Amino acid sequence: MSGLVALAATDLLAVDFFAADSLAPLLVADAFTGVFDWFLTAVVGGAFSWLAGVTGLDFLGYPYMQRAYLSVLCIGVVGPLVGSFLVYRDLSMVGDTLAHTAFAGVALALFLDATLGLAVPPLLGALVVAVVAALVVQALIEYTDARSDAALAMVLTGGFALGSVLISLTGGGISVGINQYLFGSLATVSRADVGLLVSMGLVVVGSVAVAYRPLVYVTFDETAARASRLHVRAVNTLLSILTAFVVVSAMRIMGVILVAALLVIPVVTASRLGRSFKQSLLYGVLAGELAGVAGVTVAYLYGLAAGGSIVLVALAGFVAVAAGHRLS
């Protein structure tokens, strides 16, 4: 009898252990959500409300505008940070390619929801497909005779073609939901979107900080990096995945069509100002921040598309810097 009691007690302890073990990730997620909600409401909301009172710009106190500004502040950092390694390797079109394949991921998620009832978050679908596309591009370049521009063109057109086919299979039923991802929107940026963007931003910044030296080495002399036994393929894979993270995180506000602009334009602008790669990185982030904040402000004041406004402001900054550099 005592043996049965002991066995039962052991089973109960095992059940409690596994229950606690399975609840741990949920508790961590809840804790992170609580901290982020506090940060978004108390810190970000408080700061913008104070700015609204000081400047008299009431829209700075609107929660959806605060989320939009926080989003572009994050994008303004991670876009030029990753884009610098792409532009200096003549891979500026990587961002555009992954953005169009991310569109296919959004279409796939909406298609699964509409046809099979599988509630896949569109941004998750976009992230998975964009990462796979990044790895496919790298494989095409390494294992076939395809040139990098040809590999990018094939994956870009293939991703967009897949997205359009999935839309047509539903009779256009998911086209309404996908428009906000194509062109971006200020009003549809939710707390969850901002949380995902901040999380991805921290991952990108942390990864670049840790792998900065190998990334720079491969960027400026890949042949020497291989000769020094540096794992070039791993560095290239990391850069591809980071690019996918940036593209997906910026989709909701920039839109698929224009998301690659903040990977390229601020970097090209900064290249006219920086005397070293580190200076160019800093100037690129500054140019991205100014373009993002000014673009969102113009978009709200004049009822324009946020992504288009940000890109036009970034282009205006490049023209101003190029003209000043020419005249000096």
UniProtKB/TrEMBL annotation:
Q: Name one GO cellular component term.
A: ATP-binding cassette (ABC) transporter complex
Q: Where does this protein come from, organism-wise? A: Haloferax gibbonsii (strain ATCC 33959 / DSM 4427 / JCM 8863 / NBRC 102184 / NCIMB 2188 / Ma 2.38)
Family designation? Belongs to the ABC-3 integral membrane protein family.
What InterPro entries is this protein classified in?
A: ABC_BtuC-like, ABC_TroCD
Report the main location listed first in the record. Answer: membrane
UniProt topology in membrane: Multi-pass membrane protein
Protein name stated in the entry: Zinc ABC transporter permease
Q: What does the record list as GO biological process?
A: transmembrane transport
Keywords (A to Z) from UniProt: Membrane, Transmembrane, Transmembrane helix
Q: Where are the transmembrane segments?
A: 38-61, 68-86, 123-141, 153-182, 194-215, 235-268, 280-302, 308-327
* Protein localization: Membrane
Q: Does the keyword Kinase apply?
A: no
